[in-house]
Write a structure and sequence with these properties.
32 helices, 5 domains, alpha/beta, binds iron/sulfur cluster, 21% strand, ABC_transporter-like_ATP-bd
Length: 899
């Protein structure tokens, strides 16, 4: 295979006040024709800057300071030779994109190299239709563009007729491209705007723009990061098919090692601006030769690992990188020679295998790595006592609540974010709540804490129905129920220091309070120890220890002896200092001093310091601001804040989804340790199923506002019962190139709108096992197709105009327009076209007759009758009756399980 794209000693830097950020620092990488190369690494390793450098899209204050990006393209090389006299950036068939002028780069982008960006919402222009955005790429590269010097544009101005034909051709090609990336009814949707598309469909539009001109090279920068696993599976499948059809090469940039294992031929691992290891995908995953690759793979959650092994430390400051190996400060196998001079690449694997690693070691001993940490900490079994009971919880948001709407009595539509869910969380357990974006997980979390008022239903916490509480009582109860948020940067106030952030809930709840004017009876309780050995002293600021008259500070101190341990508990909020003297195992004296203690500020400061220590932050970070911390440190601050008021129950809403795998491992370990230490109970909301599998005792699966299955974690993964759970689990990309994806269930379409969810089972519009009527003799997959056709007819979204054009083309325009039978034949041809383009399985003549009758109504623009005809024959129990979740040990809401 020839090299299509070669990056050599590429260095890209950004000028800042603090110095130059070396984002890409001497990178060598090649992509051969037809292959997919994965570029992986933690955030800040330089992956995206590499992509932008390749495309010539580095803006001020950044610049490529040295190196080359060479693209092999015989026809562009010829074009440039014709356009520029002796261009220095062209050598034979090779074009150096670093040296090429901007105008030449514009010709390369889109036509030879396409790029898919990460976030479709910010990458698409909201004011242009999706069709215009795809057409723009086509016009620019294949239809003469809008440049004044384009000969085609000159012809257009002179001959408007030619211009119209070209525009028609562009529109046709645009529709073809949208169809090739799986946009349903592209002819009808070509004039829609990005906001009218779902997240998955918007990502398809971005792919369509990148592939419109059939480039030979695709740079995909985190193309699925913003998507759910089910949609991710669709998009990866699509890229794979398109690559096969078009013979493209792909540079797949991602932090998701599962995606890399599944899609790539070769992998390059990036760390602090350099490629530290590169080789065939099997070699990298099964025989990693660089300590960074090894430790990165070790930090991933997997079925076998009881305890994760995070990489210690953080990615280095790219302004001031360590001498020698950039990974040395974090490397468990670092040696003195690692920190001096440039580290050379070493070849690994069998002679024919091109596997290189930038490390001084030939081999390293992995036996000891992580063994201490990986010993599962003693974990307590969750109890059978319910801590939280949720019964019929609903949260609807009203739309169109304007004054005029109310006066005019306009029907208000509700978004049924949470639509009647029941579940229980037991003391000490972690219940995982999973589902695609928009299924209502986060709203459920906020509603059960009453952070947003539920529309209906009951939440009973520790025996108290939260809806019975007034706002003051609710505020007090919320002390025991805290939340950790997803994005630590946006959930922390940028104007508050770490200390102030953690201290805030202490102030709100007046904790830990110091009140020297405490009244009440003081008792010194002693058990198991002779009272003559105990001295209780009041400090000067306290009048007396015993007494209950006004102005007397009092305390309740109990001293118990268990074996050789002396445990002093203080029931009033005074400072108690205890000194215990022992002779061997025998306690000889106990001195208890009671004083008013510190001021509120001092106590709170002490508590904050304890919390910083508990979550693994330095006390010195008390005065730092959120922007001065790494992502993992910010999430630790969020956790410390939640722990500040000593809660029993924590809702953790996607607490690790914004973090890299190694930081994710640190936070998951921390959450487990804190649960053990403080006896916490968690509701852990996440869309990453491998994370949920690692941390949860039980898992509840949500779909469109409802819980569809609940089971113990191992049972759910071994025996998923609901078709949605089955699809969700099958879509998880495994970080193992040998893992098969043959059984993968690719769900079609997106989660429907919660404004008007499907009747009966909400999943029926996507369910691959939707149940046909008993008297219908039809294959399951064929029935799914018919149901999809019905949905399109119900939504009136069949593209009849395009079907008519296709039918006319098929029959020959002449025959169609001069139809001798008054249009009946034409009508039939459109019906045939509609049926054939939507149904690929053969059906019995009886069923074809019913479908054709419905399609005739469609062609006559009578959509309601069409929908009725199909409903009469094809209606499923799944759309008539909503399945119940039930109360069995492993319940699932599906009619397939009815008996
Ligand atoms: S060169 Fe040294 S510090 Fe760097 S990865 Fe290899 S052993 Fe570790
Ligand atoms: S009830 Fe029907 S549509 Fe819903 S999951 Fe079960 S089979 Fe599928």
């Amino acid at each position: 295979m020839t090299n299509l794209l070669s990056l050599s000693d590429l260095r890209t830097q950004f000028a800042t006040d603090r110095g130059r950020v070396k984002a890409v620092d001497g990178l060598d990488l090649t992509v051969r024709e037809g292959e997919t190369v994965g570029l992986v690494g933690e955030s800040g390793s330089g992956k995206s800057v590499t992509a932008l450098s390749t495309m010539g899209l580095i803006d001020d204050p950044g610049e490529i300071v040295s190196g080359s990006v060479e693209l092999e393209s015989a026809h562009l090389a010829d074009e440039f030779r014709a356009q520029y006299k002796n261009p220095e950036f062209v050598d034979g068939d090779v074009i150096d994109l670093v040296q090429a002028p901007e105008e030449a780069l514009r010709a390369v982008r889109g036509s030879e190299i396409g790029m898919i960006f990460q976030d479709p919402m910010t990458s698409l222009n909201p004011s242009l239709t999706v069709g215009e955005q795809v057409a723009e790429s086509l016009r620019l590269h294949q239809y003469g563009g809008r440049r004044k010097d384009s000969w085609l544009n000159a012809v257009r101005e002179l001959l408007p007729r030619i211009s119209r034909d070209i525009d028609d051709e562009v529109v046709e090609r645009t529709i073809d491209v949208l169809e090739s990336v799986g946009i349903p009814e592209p002819g009808a949707r070509v004039d829609e705007y990005p906001h009218e598309f779902s997240g998955g469909m918007r990502q398809r539009v971005l792919i369509a723009i990148a592939l419109a001109c059939q480039p030979r090279m695709l740079v995909a920068d985190e193309p699925t990061t913003a998507l759910d696993v089910t949609i991710q599976a669709q998009i990866l499948d699509l890229i794979d098919d398109l690559q096969e059809d078009l013979g493209m090469s792909v540079l797949m940039i991602t932090h998701d090692l599962g995606v890399v294992a599944e899609t790539c031929d070769r992998v390059a691992v990036m760390y602090a601006g350099e490629i530290v290891e590169e080789g065939p995908v099997d070699e990298i995953f099964h025989n990693p030769s660089h300590p960074y690759t090894y430790t990165l793979l070790e930090s991933l959650p997997s079925e076998e690992k009881e305890r994760l092994t995070p990489i210690e430390g953080n990615v280095p400051d790219l302004i001031d990188m360590p001498e020698g190996c950039h990974f040395a400060p974090r490397c468990p196998w670092a040696k003195p020679e690692c920190t001096a001079g440039e580290i050379p690449y070493k070849q690994h694997g069998a002679g024919a295998v091109d596997h290189r690693s930038k490390c001084v070691l030939d081999d390293f001993d992995t036996d000891e790595y992580g063994t201490e940490a990986m010993v599962a900490k003693e974990t307590s079994e969750p109890s059978d006592n319910p801590l939280l009971e949720v019964d019929g919880l609903k949260k609807y948001y009203q739309q169109g609540e304007g004054f005029l709407d109310r006066v005019l009595g306009v029907d208000q539509q509700s978004v049924k974010a949470v639509d009647g869910i029941d579940f229980t969380v037991f003391e000490g357990e972690t219940l995982g709540l999973v589902g695609e974006s928009g299924c209502g997980k986060s709203t459920a979390g906020r509603s059960l804490l009453h952070l947003t008022e539920p529309t209906d239903g009951r939440v009973v916490f520790a025996g108290t129905d939260l809806s019975d509480l007034d706002s003051d009582e609710l505020r007090k109860t919320r002390r025991d129920m805290q939340m950790i948020f997803q994005d630590p940067l946006s959930s922390l106030d940028p104007r508050m220091t770490v200390g102030q952030t953690i201290q805030e809930p202490l102030k709100v709840h007046d904790l830990p309070a110091s009140d020297p004017d405490v009244r009440g009876e003081v008792k010194t309780e002693l058990s198991g120890i002779d009272s003559s050995r105990v001295t209780v002293t009041a400090s000067d600021e306290i009048d007396a220890i015993v007494g209950s008259s006004d102005g007397v500070a009092t305390a309740h101190v109990s001293v118990t002896v268990e074996g050789s341990e002396v445990d002093v508990s203080v029931e009033e909020r005074l400072r108690v200092d205890v000194e215990v003297e022992r002779d061997g195992d025998t306690v000889t004296a106990v001195d208890v001093t009671v004083s008013p203690g510190d001021s509120d500020r001092e106590r709170q400061r002490r508590r904050v310091n304890q919390l910083l220590d508990a979550v693994g932050l330095e006390v010195g970070q008390y005065d730092r601001y959120p922007h001065e911390l790494s992502g993992g440190q910010r999430q630790r601050v969020g956790i410390a804040r939640a722990l500040a008021v000593d809660p029993d129950f924590i809702v953790a809403d996607e607490p690790v989804s914004a973090l890299d795998v190694s930081v994710q491992a640190q936070i998951l370990n921390l959450l487990e340790d804190l649960q053990e230490r403080f006896g916490l109970t968690y509701l852990f909301i996440a869309h990453d199923l491998s994370v949920v599998r690692h941390i949860s005792d039980r898992i509840a699966v949500m779909y469109l506002g409802e819980i569809v299955e609940v089971a113990r974690t191992d049972e759910l993964f071994d025996d998923p019962r609901h078709p949605y759970t089955q699809a969700l689990l099958s879509a998880i990309p495994e970080p193992d190139p040998a893992a098969s994806t043959d059984d993968r269930i690719i769900l079609e379409g997106d989660v429907p709108s919660p404004i008007n969810p499907p009747s009966g089972c909400h999943f029926r519009t996507r369910c691959p096992q939707v149940i046909p009527p008993e008297d219908l003799d039809i294959e399951q997959a064929a029935y799914r197709e018919v149901m999809d056709l019905r949905q399109r007819i119900e939504k009136q979204s069949l593209d009849v105009a395009t079907a008519r054009e296709e039918a006319m083309e098929g029959r020959g325009k002449q025959a169609a327009t001069v139809s001798a039978d008054g249009g009946t034949a034409e009508h039939g041809a459109v019906v045939d076209e509609l049926r054939e383009s939507h149904l690929s399985y053969s059906l019995s003549p009886e069923l074809v007759e019913v479908i054709d009758e419905a399609l005739e109504y469609v062609v006559d623009d009578d959509w309601e009758h069409a929908a009725d005809v199909l409903r009469d024959r094809f209606e499923s129990v799944c759309e008539r009756d909503a399945p119940e979740l039930g109360t069995a040990d492993h319940p699932a809401a599906c009619h397939l399980l009815d008996n």
